[in-house]
Amino acid sequence: xxxxxxxxxxxxxxxxxxxxxxxxxxxxxxxxxxxxxxxxxxxxxxxxxxxxxxxxxxxxxxxxxxxxxxxxxxxxxxxxxxxxxxxxxxxxxxxxxxxxxxxxxxxxxxxxxxxxxxxxxxxxxxxxxxxxxxxxxxxxxxxxxxxxxxxxxxxxxxxxxxxxxxxxxxxxxxxxxxxxxxxxxxxxxxxxxxxxxxxxxxxxxxxxxxxxxxxxxxxxxxxxxxxxxxxxxxxxxxxxxxxxxxxx
Length: 248
Prior knowledge:
Blueprint: H1 3-11, E1 15-19, H2 23-35, E2 39-43, H3 46-56, E3 61-65, H4 73-83, E4 88-92, H5 97-106, E5 110-113, H6 118-132, E6 143-144, E7 149-152, E8 157-160, E9 163-166, H7 169-180, E10 186-187, H8 188-195, H9 203-217, E11 227-230, E12 234-237, H10 240-245
Parallel strand pairs: 1-2, 1-3, 3-4, 4-5
Antiparallel strand pairs: 6-7, 7-8, 8-9, 10-12, 11-12
Helix pairs in contact: 2-6, 7-9
């Protein structure tokens, strides 16, 4: 990756996508998070949010109201998590313990009951983003890794040497998690918990999916340059800027 592009990416603000059908709530979220230093995209429906992500790429974090017209917030969250590991804070007026617990366990990283304290929202956003770290690649619809590889997470495809290849939802999410932590070892246990949170998947299952992903994006899958096995620990995504400089 060219140094000037990498520097531009580091300088970009983290992007938050807020979805709520109440314009006043969206205005409050926007003002609060922009004051906290984030870039904010807004949408009043899930369908509009999906179109926005098609055009602009995935956000670093999404704030989603559960009760949306048309496609509801929980369904939108499932759509996002089918292709990525974007963290989600759910907004709800449903002060029901069973609903909240189920939402957190299955879909969201956090939740807030309306009406909410704006400062608390900013604090929770900051806490989650600090925990997961920043996505070092620019959040565009098409992310260019290097001259050989580009990735479109929303459309679930990779461009390898100019040739488009479809990725499965699992492959897309795996690649997102590894790229999000580029240059770092991502533990097998973490990957399993994020990709298959409610299923019985093991290291063999993960190994099979990593193998299939390598077959698609690696020039020489038996000698991977992007997805590297860290024996006894997990996997790491190595961009070629780091590989050339020798840093990990």
